[in-house]
Amino acid sequence: MELAEFNALDAAESARVVGVWAAIPEWVQSVVDGRPYRTVDELVAVAEGLARDWTRADLDAALSHHPRIGERPAGTGAEAAASRTEQAGMTDADDDVTALIAAGNRVYEERFGRVFLIRAAGRTPQEMLAELKRRLSNDPDAEVGEALAQLAEIALLRARGDVIETASTSTPTETGVPS
């Protein structure tokens, strides 16, 4: 949707949109309350700044909505659709890589008590597996930090994917024609 449309949504609908980016109620409300945004970059900068305050409790709340890496997201809603798009690279994964990720997911959940979260968009299954193995050696506090950083990356990518510049908010070029 265009930025002007996002800015004009009623509070409940805009919260539904932002909640798909990261299901952290206080963050969602703050992003919604920050409207109107002049540019998508401003929207993303505010969302990113607010994400720096996320806590372990926020992470746990948000992860209740995230599927495991390598598992097909269930449902028909916007969040499931976003997850399916982000994890599209897993459809081409070799069976052995898929099995190793599934086994790693179980170990991760036993160790940290939550699903393994990684920005899947732009990563190969082998890269995700390597990160899973590496992060299994983290101590719990370091892993919370890494998982929160991944959640923020996912949220900001989703925001940029959902909201585009409005023609009237595009930055003029040197010729005065919007880019």
The gist of it:
The chain has 179 residues and is an all-alpha fold. The chain has helices at residues 3-8, 11-21, 25-33, 40-51, 56-63, 78-86, 95-112, 125-135, 140-162. It has one domain: Oxo-4-hydroxy-4-carboxy-5-ureidoimidazoline decarboxylase (UraD-like), CATH 1.10.3330.
What would the principal axes of the Cα set say about the shape?
Answer: elongated
Helix content: 55-70%
The percentage of residues in β strands lies in: under 5%
C-alpha Rg (nearest Å): 18 Å
Organism: Microbacterium pumilum
Pathway: Purine metabolism; urate degradation; (S)-allantoin from urate: step 3/3
EC number: 4.1.1.97
Catalytic activity: 5-hydroxy-2-oxo-4-ureido-2,5-dihydro-1H-imidazole-5-carboxylate + H(+) = (S)-allantoin + CO2
State the main characteristics.
decarboxylase, UraD-like, OHCU_decarboxylase_sf, EC 4.1.1.97, mainly alpha, OHCU_decarboxylase-2, 60% helix
